[in-house]
Amino acid sequence: MSAGQSIGREVGQSRLHALLVNGALFALALVSLAPLLWMLSVSFMPTGEAARFPPPLLPSELSGENYRALFGRTGMGRNFLNSLLVAGAITIGSLLVNTLAGYAFAKLRFRGRDRLFQLLLAALVVPAQVAMLPLFLLMKQLGLVNSYAGVVLPALASVFGIFLVRQYARSIPDELLEAARIDGAGEWRIFFSIVLPMLKPVLVTLAIFSFMAAWNDFMWPLIVLTDQEHYTLPVALATLSREHIMDVELMMAGAVVTVLPVLLLFLLLQRYYIQGLLLGSVKG
Amino acid sequence: MSARLAGWLFVGPALLVLGLFFALPVLSALALSLTDFDLYALADMRNLRFVALDNYLELLRTPLFWKALWNTTYFVVVGVPLSVAVSLGAALLLNAPAARLRGLFRTALFAPVVTTLVAVAVIWRYLFHTSYGLVNWALGHLGIDPVDWLGDPRWAMPTIILFAVWKNFGYNMVIFLAGLQAIPRDLYEAARIDGASRWQQFLHITLPQLGPVLLVVGVITVSGYFQLFAEPYVMTRGDPLQSTVSVLYFMFEEGFKWWNLGRASAVAFLLFVVILAATTLMLRLGRRRGMV
């Protein structure tokens, strides 16, 4: 076998290899996206079209009736606003609370700091659902069952958020803070005018995580919100799907409205999201 | 204001929230699980009685609890290895030198992770519908008769597992990808000179190098999968024949449908113990094998 033949075969093999790798990736991408594309397509079909056989892939005509029915008849517009309000309040509130704590754990010296932080990390082993039953009774005592506050308050601090900020804040040079203190700046001023600007990237990451977690959260809102007026989108959608078993097109419009905001947010700020994911899991 | 005082002031709000809405409820759950808290106690606290370990003992005699524990274990034991394998496979493909359009593929494969679980569960319910679902229609072309995916007790849990793999594999994929990129290139270089095949390189370089990441991913995924709830709530309501009742679904029904909050708290604690035991065992085994 000449050298030329051998190289030729290797090139052929590596071409086949490249074809296999990219073909497999394409297949995986198709499987990942197909359900979402199907959802979008069906949401524009006239009522009853998706329940035909064979199932159509594209709408025969673009119909907006499902979205009109969704926001009109089923009142999902209200649930959309609820979700926006709850997720927005959680994002803003938890951003402040977690950043303050994360920075303090990283840079301020106080008694019992490290032991306290270890205690918080240890608490991560306890599944959130263990707390939910007494939390419901507590909310009942506080008169917060079936209120937005009942969803927002418990989500205002998270160990993950504190951890994320702490990891990032450790890179702030101590000399910078000391210099500010010598110049007579108070701790609040240092936090707002020196620390916060330096933490900007991790704040974006934390904001996306908080918003998405709050938007997608299901079990606790399902427990603490008891009437449709107050439901967030996932709770409303789950309830609707238990009633409208056959109305596929309407349900898909509901799914689109629920999924689209978080999907768009992810597409826009993907870099920050992935960074946060890695910071929170591997390097931890 | 001294830095020391500032420290406590700054962690104060977080501690207040976590203490009041997490630590206190968790401790109360332990106390609650030792009482017969039910609808009568909810109306009037004087009806509350201390029952010691009765809730736990009674649960161990309740067939549906065992069924829920079995279903959840099935979901974990089949679902976790499958999820991790698909994640690793996808990461290897994305990391292959021959891969094109990596950014685009990574985004596409990750997309299901950020979607709202309830919404995509609804989509899957229709895709796997017996008579007009796309899945049965596609299988029909291969000559396979329609399967009653979510209505057949043998198929309901496997369908939910498939759904969970689809929804979650992107998350671990990104973590594996970072792990793969941290493996020194010259290890592969040396192996190739020694004539090692791709499969041998994977077995003797990639897997051992990924050891710690694999262990962490495994532990996180196991603990997450034990907390199965929304999938059966939306897709099957625990049916058919209670084949998809998970431990948390059982807890939810006990607690918020029948208002047996004492019993439900005991369920929550038993699940906690199971998760703790499983993950501790994994970490022990991993350590013994020198993965960490």
Short structural summary:
The complex is a heterodimer of chains A (284) and B (292). With 284 residues, chain A is mostly helical.
Q: How far is the N terminus from the C terminus of chain A?
A: 54 Å
How confident overall, as mean pLDDT of chain B?
91
Please name the fourth-level CATH homologous superfamily of the largest domain in chain A: MetI-like
> SSE order of chain B in H/E notation?
HHHHHHHHHHHHH
Keywords (chain A): Cell membrane, Membrane, Sugar transport, Transmembrane, Transmembrane helix, Transport
Family (chain A): Belongs to the binding-protein-dependent transport system permease family.
Organism (chain A): Pseudoxanthomonas taiwanensis J19
Membrane topology (chain A): Multi-pass membrane protein
Would you mind describing this structure in some detail?
The complex is a heterodimer of chains A (284) and B (292). Chain A is mostly helical. Helix content of chain A is 74%, strand content 0%. The mean pLDDT of chain A is 90. By secondary structure, chain B is mainly alpha-helical. Chain B has a single domain, classed as MetI-like (MetI-like fold, Orthogonal Bundle), CATH 1.10.3720.10. Chain B is globular, with a radius of gyration of 24 Å. Classes of the chains: A mainly alpha (284), B mainly alpha (292).
Layout of helices and strands:
The complex is a heterodimer of chains A (284) and B (292).
Chain A lengths: L2 H41 L21 H7 L4 H32 L5 H11 L5 H13 L6 H5 L6 H11 L4 H9 L4 H12 L1 H17 L2 H6 L8 H11 L4 H34 L3
Helix pairs in contact in A: 1-13, 2-13, 3-7, 3-10, 7-10, 10-13, 12-13
Chain B lengths: L2 H30 L6 H5 L10 H7 L2 H33 L6 H13 L2 H11 L6 H8 L14 H26 L3 H9 L4 H28 L4 H6 L11 H11 L3 H28 L4
Helix pairs in contact in B: 4-8, 4-10, 4-12, 5-8, 8-10, 10-13, 12-13
Which key features would you list for this structure?
heterodimer; A: 284 residues; mainly alpha; MetI-like fold; 2 domains; 74% helix; B: 292 residues; 13 helices
